[in-house]
Amino acid sequence: MKKELYSIKLISILMVILLLTVQTGCGRASRKKEKEISPETASTRFSEETGEIDDVMMEHLLEKVMKKLTLEQKIGQMFIVCTDSLDFNAETAMTDKAAETLKKYQPGGVIFFSFNLVDREQTKTFIDSLQSCSRVPLFTAVDEEGGKVARIANAEGMNTTVFPPMAEIGRTEDPGEARKVGETIGSEISELGFNLDFAPVADISTNDLNTEIGTRSFGDDPKLVAKMVSEVVKGLQEKGVCATLKHFPGQGDSGEDTHRGYVNLDTSIDRLRDMEFVPFKAGIKAGADFVMVSHVAVSNITQNEVPASLSSLMVSDILRGELQFENVIITDAMNMKVITKFYDPAQAAVMAVQAGNDMILMPDDFKLAYEGIQEALADGDLTKKDINDAAERILRTKIRRGIIPLDSDLLK
Fold it and tell me: What is the DSSP letter of 332?
């Protein structure tokens, strides 16, 4: 009887061990199966949980959307235009002509000014209408710095927070105040449909005669400006709005206005590295999506009178190479007198791309600028690689900020 009981206990123990082994084996099989989940599925799940997309998934998504766009559509992505370029009558609402222009040229974005804004509902409706006519979701941009350059806050009926000039924020010497500016502006303009802010100003105010920058700058101390700029960048982009460092290489020391004509910044590369570049480096480290290149000339460095925005030395060698900025480089507005006085729209657009810019802001004539790039490709003055490299940086930013959502047909 004891032997039988012993046998029964032994069999029971063996059965328990066997059961545990089978269960443990299932556990290993489950973990192995989880590891075999495709990179696409794993990365998508990661994106949903963290709000970020890893590098492997980003390249996978980017490859998909690039294959779906024609070369002509990629060229279109390289422009941010004002509503007048779509249709002079499309200041506050969509028109048939504006819709046709959007569908034909597929610009990468549209910039709004105060004359485009009537009230909150009109703004939302207008932006929605623009987006619905574009195969690739648009950058919807605005200059919302705070102070005097705040197209939305300074417009009646928009009901967003009015901030003082950034010089006042700088005088607090509190980076937390700059962070609040970025977070508040980012939150409020994204509610209206904007996803790109041409801010913060990274220029250092070192010339009292400079009326173009003046109190738009956080101050005259490069280290303080750097801290403030990096916090605004973080605040904006945490709210899903692309931030823009402007106006590279830094024009706070100039005494004239590029809106009115030619401006030469009498400086050296050592001075730029010690002063003007400091806030840009901080903003780049903070992850800024855009850098805007100024039209100031820096003839002591470039050895010519070409604006920085059209100089490969300033854009490709220094901003892209030395400062290692990997995201989107955009020109300042190309309808400024400093450009239109010396270059036609096609010539300026081609020179901008040759210099290394990814995007062209507000060409004086969008159609001529677009056609100019097409002709330069046909003539061999630009290559398909120039266009593809720019398009990749633009589209990568749109994916990263959710402007092109993960469930978009472009990513399937």
Answer: S
295 carries an active-site annotation: no
What residue segments make up the domains of the chain, in order of their start?
Answer: 78-411
Token digits for 22?
């089978």
Among residues 289, 332, 358, 365, the one annotated as catalytic is 332
- Which residue type does 58 have? M
What pLDDT, in 10s, does the model give residues 47-102? 444 467 899 999 999 999 999 999 999 999 999 999 999 999 999 999 999 999 99
pTM of the model: 0.87
Average pLDDT for 390-402: 98
Q: How far is CA 196 from the centre of its chain?
A: 6
Q: Quickly name the fold that domain 78-411 has.
A: TIM Barrel (3.20.20)
Please give the DSSP secondary-structure letter assigned to residue 359: B
| Pairwise CA distance, residues 234 & 285, whole Å | 10
Residue 312, classed as helix, strand or coil, is helix
Catalytic residue among 60, 220, 221, 259: 259
**Is residue 409 among the annotated active site residues?**
no
> What is the model's pLDDT at position 211?
80
Q: How many CB atoms lie within 10 A of CB 392?
A: 18
pLDDT band per the 50, 70, 90 thresholds, residue 7:
very low
Q: Is residue 80 a contact partner of residue 107, using CB atoms and an 8 Å limit?
A: yes
Structure tokens at 170: 């700088």
